[in-house]
Specification:
This is 4-carboxymuconolactone decarboxylase. The chain is an all-alpha fold. The chain has seven helices and no strands.
Length: about 120
């Protein structure tokens, strides 16, 4: 388990950026510590650490799934991560077009709105 946690932290930092992960870790409390460990080991130490597909494709899948399921809160974080995963703006648009067809236009439309806002923020920074 320790290896999967450590691998998860390494992958999480490489995808989301060290500053983001450090802020998240600083905000961790005893209440959510077990949950944070779970997502670090499972999402980052297992799924994102897999070499079955590349980070670009994984990023596109993640964004599409977040949008399709209406989990909009994490979209800006994963849009920012595209600078490290290699998913281009075109890739993101293509992923959200799939969402529009297979999961609904309103979800894709909202995801695109969030992506546009986040890209604009990134360009200002």
């Amino acid at each position: 388990m320790v290896d999967r946690y450590e691998k998860g932290m390494t992958v999480r930092k490489s995808v989301l950026g060290e500053a983001h992960v450090n802020r998240a870790e600083a905000a961790k409390t005893p209440f959510d510590e077990a949950f944070q460990t779970l997502i670090t080991e499972a999402a980052w130490g297992t799924v994102w650490a897999s070499d079955g597909i590349g980070d670009r494709e994984r990023s596109m899948l993640t964004l599409a799934l977040l949008a399709a399921l209406g989990n909009f809160e994490e979209i800006p974080m994963h849009i920012r991560a595209t600078t490290r995963t290699g998913a281009s703006k075109t890739d993101v648009l293509e992923a959200f077009q799939h969402v529009a067809i297979y999961a609904g236009v309103p979800r894709a439309n909202h995801a695109l709105k969030l992506a546009k806002q986040t890209y604009a923020e990134m360009e200002r920074d």
